[in-house]
Please model this.
Amino acid sequence: MPHIDYFFSTVSPFTYLAGTRLEEIAQKHGATISYKPMDVFTLFDRTGGIRLPNRHESRKEYRLQEMRRQSRKAGLKLNLQPMFWPTNPAPSSYAIISAAKAGGGDLGGLVHAFTRACWAEEKNIAEDDVVKDILAAHGFDPNLADSGMLTAADVYANNLEEAVSRGVFGAPFYIVGEEKFWGQDRLEDLDLHLAGKI
Model:
């Protein structure tokens, strides 16, 4: 059975623009997924990336065009300048880690809901009430937002270290064995790889 390690950030617009296609691809091929939220800003610092405020204007302009095009292509509403961005990704990431450990809900839907809240619904995913509402809406105990935070914080930090050690440099990032796929626009390639075509 193939396995996908999924490194992502809940504040990444391109993680949002992946929608739930990863889950659809995994189901199609009988693959399992390990969800690994990480601090993408620190990842940039550690792997040669440049945080958005420090990028050249041409890169900033291209990013906005690409976000607009990709949102239309995916059929997903997107606010190019969301009210609560950047925000602290840790609370939503900790909730995902705790939910994965607890089980019983829709984990893929939970991940997408946090990114959608940030990029399409003008919600601050660092706020406790927002985190709890999203947990509950996807079949998880909302009190997970208040429990196991030390363990979740350790996992979150370890996810970053694992990402760096395995050659991850952006989000979303998918790894199957030694094969790496960066960006939601490489999901088609991931699908073809799992089908044995590339």
User: Anything to note?
Assistant: The domain at 3-194 is CATH 3.40.30.10 (Glutaredoxin). The chain has a mean pLDDT of 97. The longest strand covers residues 3-8. The chain has one domain: 3-194.
